[in-house]
Amino acid sequence: MKKLKRSERLVDMTQYLLTKPHTLIPLTTFAERYGAAKSSISEDLAIIKDVFENEGIGELQTLAGAAGGVQYIPKLHKEHAYAFAEKLCHQLEQPDRILPGGYLYMSDLLGQPSLMNEAGKIIATAFADRDIDVVMTVETKGIPLAYATAAQLNLPVVLVRRDHQVTEGSAVSINYVSGSHKSIHTMSLSRRALKEQSRVLIVDDFMKAGGTIQGMVDLLGEFNAEVAGVGVLVESGAVESEERLLEDYISLARLSDVDSKTKMIKVTPGNYFEQ
């Protein structure tokens, strides 16, 4: 790479770090990339570190020693996350989102990359300090959020299927109870998709009583895997506490009430902001 001015080097270095979250980068990588001394690189990183932390972009963690380096940990300040949650709640409260049966239309929001990237960064922030191997979700609507979260954590995504696909090879299947009518469904996961004893972050777009997520938890038990955390975009607040199958989870928004007659929807920031 050609010799850059310091201002140019700072811009390029910042971009490099942002595209490689949770990746340990040796100082020699930057020194060779820019033809600069390690002392100069360290000074540049100190500037970037201050900006990242002051602006709520994330943290730069430095590891000393021959095998050391620097890694970028995406972390969003609570106030920035709360502003996003309020915006999300406002969008979810639009009267035309009410579907027959009191369901809420969310597919348009789940299809917005910028919105999912922001939500994914908040969930990644909540679990940034946990030891996680993979992000898991069940097809299909939770996929955008799962990939957005995994991108911030620099982790692979594992998809649980509702119907086993022959292209997945041999799989483990279980039955689970979901929905207000307590109906029985099936989910499956390819044996090749997840290593045994993996630590898994479960991500989903919506949770009512938690039957689908509990199904994923049970499925992980078949792989001797461990649940490292659960993050959902929206939870239903209308569920009685004794009906909730999960206790340890974070949500970004809470659907408190849907009135089909008056077309009124009430959504508030989720339990992540109560912690």
UniProtKB/TrEMBL annotation:
UniProt keyword annotations, A-Z: DNA-binding, Transcription, Transcription regulation
GO molecular function terms noted in the UniProt entry: DNA binding
Organism (species): Paenibacillus campinasensis
Domain Bacterial purine repressor N-terminal, residue spans: 5-74
Family stated for the protein in its record: Belongs to the purine/pyrimidine phosphoribosyltransferase family. PurR subfamily.
Coiled-coil intervals, chain numbering: none
A GO biological-process term: negative regulation of DNA-templated transcription
Top-level taxon in the UniProt lineage: Bacteria
Domain Phosphoribosyltransferase positions: 113-242
Protein name: Pur operon repressor
InterPro entries recorded: PRTase-like (IPR029057), PRTase_dom (IPR000836), Pur/Pyrimidine_PRTase (IPR050118), PuR_N (IPR015265), PurR_Bsub (IPR010078), WH-like_DNA-bd_sf (IPR036388), WH_DNA-bd_sf (IPR036390)
Annotated gene: purR
Oligomeric and partner information: Homodimer.
Pfam family, one: Pribosyltran
